[in-house]
Write a structure and sequence with these properties.
The chain has four helices and eight strands; from the N terminus they run E-H-E-H-E-E-E-H-E-E-E-H. It has 162 residues and is an alpha/beta fold. Bound molecules: 1-O-pyrophosphono-5-O-phosphono-alpha-D-ribofuranose, xanthine and magnesium ion (MG). 1-O-pyrophosphono-5-O-phosphono-alpha-D-ribofuranose binds next to strand 2, strand 3, strand 5 and helix 3.
């Protein structure tokens, strides 16, 4: 389902995501963390890459769901953690409206919260992010995409199929 709040798309490849996460790690490497709390599911892949770069083996999750494709629904928290986040790195793939971030911040007020991508509404809720993306832009992550055939341009223009 699409939402007309989103007028543009920003497609992130696996390579781009890997490069972006590594760049974010350059800003984190001097700090010591007890472990990582990944916000599922989108935070799991950046968390795994960050764990590798910073040599962190202790990884926990906050399991939370807000969107069904582009439709934002009620926040569903399926699993929390039993600490306030002190000394922990909290990781998500992105912050958009900030609804997810606000809820997780309440659970882990002392964690250092990072995302790879941040939109303006949610940006103030995170401590660090790598790339800002416009509010009306839907980020397409590589795990949601596949390769597909593309009709040659001349066919699209001269004899479009429906
Ligand atoms: O700032 P917000 O407007 O709250 O949106 C950001 C959240 O939405 C997405 O998660 P989603 O709920 O789609 O679940 P997923 O991580 O399992 O894909 C994304 O991974 C963030 O966690
Ligand atoms: O894949 C996604 N891209 C987005 O831009 C977004 N915003 C909230 N949730 C999202 N998921
Ligand atoms: Mg998520």
């Amino acid at each position: 389902m699409t939402d007309n709040r989103y007028q543009h798309h920003f497609t992130v490849s696996w390579d781009q995501l890997h490069r972006d996460v590594r760049s974010l790690c350059h800003q984190l490497v001097e700090r010591d963390f007890k472990g990582i709390v990944a916000i599922t599911r989108g935070g799991l892949i950046p968390a795994a890459l960050i764990a590798r770069e910073l040599d962190i083996r202790l990884i926990d999750t906050v399991c939370i769901k807000s969107y069904d494709e582009q439709a934002q629904g009620k926040l569903d928290v399926m699993k929390g953690v039993d600490h306030d986040g002190d000394g922990w790195l909290l990781v998500d793939d992105l912050v958009d409206t900030g609804k997810t971030a606000r809820a997780v911040r309440e659970m882990l007020p002392k964690a250092h919260f990072v995302t790879v991508y941040a939109k303006p509404e949610g940006r103030p809720l995170v401590d660090q992010y790598l790339t800002e993306v416009a509010q009306d832009c839907w980020i397409e992550f590589p795990w949601d995409l596949g390769h597909a055939y593309v009709e040659p341009l001349v066919n699209q223009i001269r004899s479009p199929k429906s």
